[in-house]
Write a structure and sequence with these properties.
Shape of chain A: elongated
CATH superfamily of one domain in chain B: Cytochrome c oxidase-like, subunit I domain
Strand content of chain B: under 5%
Distance between the termini of chain B: 25 Å
Helix content of chain A: over 70%
Oligomer: heterodimer
Largest sheet of chain B: none
Radius of gyration of chain B: 22 Å
Number of domains of chain A: 1
Shape of chain B: globular
Order of helices and strands of chain B: HHHHHHHHHHHHHHHHH
Structural class of chain A: mainly alpha
CATH class of chain A: Mainly Alpha
CATH architecture of chain A: Up-down Bundle
CATH topology of chain A: Four Helix Bundle (Hemerythrin (Met), subunit A)
Structural class of chain B: mainly alpha
Strand content of chain A: under 5%
Number of helices of chain B: 17
Order of helices and strands of chain A: HHHHHHH
Number of strands of chain B: 0
Number of strands of chain A: 0
Helix content of chain B: over 70%
Amino acid sequence: MMSNNMETSAAAPVGVQPATRPAYPPGDLAIWIFILAELLVFAVFFAAYAFTRMNHVELFNEYQATLNRDAALINTLALLTSSYFVMRGVVAAREGNNALCARWIWAAVAMGVVFVVVKSTEYAHHLGAGVSLSTNDFYMFYLSLTFFHFMHVILGMVILAAVAVKARSGGYSVEDHTGVETGASYWHMVDLLWLILFPLVYVMR
Amino acid sequence: MQYKSQAVAKPYFIAAIGLFVGQILFGLILGLQYVIGDFMFPEIPFNVARMVHTNLLIVWLLFGFMGAAYYLVPEEAERELVSPGLALLMFWVFLVAGALTILGYLLVPYSGLAELTRNELLPTMGREFLEQPTITKLGIVVVALAFVFNIGLTILKGRKTVVSLVLLIGLVGLAVFFLFSFYNPDNLVKDKYYWWWVVHLWVEGVWELILGSILAFVLIKTTGVDREVIEKWLYVIIAMTLITGIIGTGHHFYWIGAPEYWQWWGSIFSALEPIPFFMMTVFAFNMVNRRRRNHPNKAAILWALGTAVMAFLGAGVWGFLHTLSPVNYYTHGTQITAAHGHMAFYGAYVMIVLTMISYAMPMLRGREAANSNRSQVLEMWSFWLMTVSIVFITLFLTGAGILQVYLQRFSADPLPFMVVQDKIALFYWMREVAGLVFLIGLLTYVASFFVGSREPEATVAVAEKA
């Protein structure tokens, strides 16, 4: 089944009205294989964090207090909002409204920019205070996990920008908007990972 | 053969096979020296035999990659090579430089070779796998530059496909990372650190791109599955390769004095390195199962499926076995590493080169698409002989490694290295026997080029009966 999708998912199945019955999973199957692999990498990282924290609860609690939770909350809201915008973009694409789709996707990218700026000020603060990967286990995980996620945000923005550019030039239609769904799926993954990362690293005591 | 200039691949393939035979002969000498320490001493001491065994492997794989690229790129770019003459010239430069270097290893004491080649001017010698005299290393750079120039320009001037672009990224990466072999800092930690940038980022990074693109090319040609489908797989596979493989370098940084966070980074990312290999296995079988036509070259398809399976086992499974830092604490530098090395190199890189040779050589020798049935049957025999014997070599070395770890490092009363070596001698003997079977397989492979060459080409119907 997997292999069949890999071939046919580029276009909606013949005779099926995409607007009423979207193909499942949405987007290209290849992106889902990629998403699963990415989730696995993060899952291993999260598990490693949890086990290490278990053995050093006090150290983790102490240094967690040095993180800027307000900034992280702003970033959570920014990513959630961006996912909403992306969803609106997909709806617009399914209705064949390329211009509207492009506007929503660009709005999502703008929220991504907010995330990147806020996160960068956080990094600047910590690096300015002399924190590095070798400071202690907590900072090692904090910097590794958030930076790895940060790189995914940037990759996601590149993908969304490519979708927006194509939408602007009228590249999608009611019949074929797989590209929008593909980009949206990846972006939702980036958002989802942050929704685990935020409570795990910033909030959980 | 669609383009005349593809013919330059032929001498590269022949040289690769010739050096492969040499590599295996030295492997057998080396294997015997594990149990008969003074075998062939002082003519070929252990350290020299080991150096020749590993260096020949790398050189012949490079010959294979270059040959594969020279065959593949014109067909993908849909034009002749920019300069077939340069490709032939570089073939001879590389062959002569390689032969002189090996003769240097064998005829002159290593320190004498260093003096003879004026190593003191730019010291780069004396490091595992990078033992080549500086002048040879410079020669390799020249050959690699000319090669990348030739291939790159052909691709840029012609049709650009995902397959050829991935191949090009892999080849450029191969050339760029080799430059770290010239960086030889006094600080031993840094020395080891950047040494891995050549060794690891080759075999667990850019070489995998070369592997992926050659496999994709052969599958496109033999199965007739849509290029789009195959390219999509290739994208996903190389993305995972790079994500896991680049940071996975950290699994070499555990015990060399690098910062502690590498314990985590190395463990986590390298633990996921089997994923792209597993994807490659699924990919290869999927494409063959959904083939749109039966290709008469059954042997090439067997090699392609074989490399996908054996790369996953050797590089993926046997790599995972000792990649986590708490495990590697015990297994580091034992026969477990040797077991992994043998199956990974055979499965991933030997077999992909043989896949390409198997696919391309019939055309290079004037056939339409495939060798005669008799030749293919013999080639498939050699496939099974070599593959089964490498599995046994790996299992025997794994057995030796587990015992070694236990006796030497894990038990309450650890024994000295040489005492343990004596105790595991039985495994070394069995490995040597498996090695002999491998040699028989390799000779069978060579013989398959000379058998049935006057008989008619295998057709799909005939091949299916066989």
